[in-house]
Specification:
363 residues; alpha/beta; seven-stranded mixed β-sheet; six-stranded parallel β-sheet; 14 helices; 44% helix
Length: 363
C-alpha cells in the first residue's frame, strides 16, 4: 500500500519528461545510425557529384568510392578521406580488382536473395546507369539496396548512340552490351534511380547544385583563386570535346570552328573561357581567351564565374548548367562537318531532354 501511495505521489510531469527523454534518445540513436553506400567505376568529379547528391537526398552519411582511371589512364579523382556536407567519404582506386564470371554469378544470386528476403537495409551499392554485377555487388548484394546514378549523356543514350560510341572507342559487341545494360537497369536489379537532369524536380536539382558547390570548395580552391581576376567580366564558357582525339574531325578544322566561336563571343562583348575536355589533346584557341585544363566539372567552373552563357558540342554539361544555374546553353554541333555531327547526334529521349533546355547555336 505504501508503494502504491508512493507511486501516486510521483508527479505526472516527471513521467512525461521521462517519456520525452526516451523518445529523444531513440531519435538520437536513429540519427547517428550509419547509412553507408558503396559505389564503383567513378571516373570524374561529375560522377562524384551525382553520387554525393544522391547521398544527401537519401540521408546517407558514409560513402565508399572505388574509382577507376580515364581512357587516358589518368586518375582524375583525388584519393583520400573527406567530409563533405556531413558525409564521410573515402576515395580509393580499385586496381587489380577485376570482375570475373564467378563475381557475376554470385552477384546476381546475392541480388535475388535480397529481393526475396525483403529485409530493411541501411546499406546501398551504386553504379552509373545500371546495376553492375561486380565484386562489390558480390560482397554486399545480399544485404544492400541498389541505386543507379547519372553518369552524363551516356545514361540516356539509345542503341544508335551506344553503337556510335563503340565505333569511336573500337569496342566490340555494342548491341549485346546495350541489351545487357538495359536488362541490368530494370527495377528488379535497381531499387532506385537518380537522374535529376531528366526530371523537373526542384529539390533534386538544388541538392545536385549543393554537391557541385561542396566539390568546388573541397577540391578546387586553387582554381577559385585563379578565376578571381575574371569575376567581374561577362564570361562565355566554351565546353571542349575530344572530337580530334576520337578521329571525328581534323585538328585544324576544329580549331577554325573554335576561332569562329571566339570571334562571335568577342563581338558580343564577352570574354571566352575554353574548358578543355580531359581527353583532349593540347589546343590553343585564341589570344583573347583562356584555356583551362582542370579535372573540375564544367558545373563547378560555371559556379565560380559570372557566366552569361555556355556553348558546347552535344555535351551533357549543357543540360546541367541550364537546369542548375539557369544559364543559357547552346549546342554548336551544327557547326561541325556532317560526319562529326552525325557521330554525336541526339535522338530519342536524349534529344527531348536537350530540346527542353538547350538551343542551337548560330554564328
Amino acid at each position: 500500500m505504501k508503494n502504491g501511495k508512493l507511486l501516486c505521489r510521483i508527479p505526472v510531469s516527471w513521467l512525461f519528461l521521462r517519456l520525452r527523454d526516451d523518445t529523444k534518445s531513440e531519435l538520437l540513436k536513429e540519427s547517428m545510425a550509419q547509412r553507408k553506400a558503396y559505389v564503383s567505376d567513378l571516373i570524374t568529379y561529375y560522377h562524384l557529384a551525382s553520387v554525393i547528391s544522391y547521398c544527401i537526398y537519401n540521408k546517407i552519411n558514409d560513402l565508399e568510392v572505388f574509382a577507376i582511371t580515364s581512357m587516358n589512364g589518368d586518375r582524375l579523382l583525388k584519393e583520400g578521406f573527406y567530409v563533405l556536407g556531413g558525409i564521410r567519404i573515402r576515395i580509393s582506386y580499385c586496381a587489380g580488382k577485376k570482375t570475373s564470371i564467378i563475381n557475376v554469378v554470385f552477384a546476381v544470386i546475392s541480388r535475388i536473395r535480397f529481393r526475396v528476403s525483403k529485409v530493411h537495409s541501411d546499406a546501398w551499392i551504386g553504379h552509373h546507369s545500371y546495376f553492375k554485377p561486380n565484386w562489390i555487388a558480390n560482397e554486399y548484394g545480399s544485404k544492400a539496396n541498389t541505386f543507379s546514378f547519372e553518369e552524363g549523356i551516356g545514361t540516356f543514350g539509345n542503341l544508335s548512340y551506344h553503337r556510335n560510341v563503340a565505333r569511336r572507342e573500337d569496342s566490340r559487341f555494342p548491341v549485346l552490351k546495350f541489351i545487357t545494360k538495359k536488362m541490368l537497369s530494370t527495377k528488379f536489379f535497381v531499387d532506385s534511380f537518380w537522374f535529376p537532369m531528366a526530371e523537373d524536380d526542384e529539390v533534386k536539382i538544388r541538392v545536385l547544385k549543393q554537391a557541385f558547390e561542396l566539390i568546388g570548395r573541397e577540391f578546387f580552391k586553387s582554381l577559385a583563386c585563379e578565376l578571381e581576376s575574371f569575376s567581374n567580366k561577362p564570361i562565355v564558357v566554351i565546353l571542349g570535346a575530344p572530337l580530334v582525339r576520337l578521329g571525328l574531325i581534323e585538328a585544324e578544322e576544329y580549331k577554325k570552328i573554335l576561332m569562329d566561336l571566339v570571334s562571335r563571343i568577342n563581338l558580343l562583348g564577352c570574354f571566352p573561357v575554353y574548358k578543355a575536355h580531359h581527353l583532349e589533346t593540347a589546343i590553343d584557341i585564341h589570344p583573347s581567351g583562356i584555356v583551362l585544363r582542370t579535372s573540375a566539372p564544367a558545373e563547378v567552373l560555371i559556379s565560380m564565374l559570372s557566366t552569361k552563357w555556355v556553348v558546347g558540342f552535344s555535351s551533357s554539361a549543357l543540360i546541367s548548367t541550364s537546369k542548375i544555374f539557369n544559364v543559357d546553353a547552346y549546342n554548336a554541333a551544327n557547326l561541325l562537318p556532317a560526319p562529326a555531327r552525325n557521330a554525336i547526334g541526339l535522338d530519342g529521349s536524349l534529344k527531348s531532354i536537350f530540346d527542353s533546355c538547350v538551343s542551337d547555336f548560330e554564328l
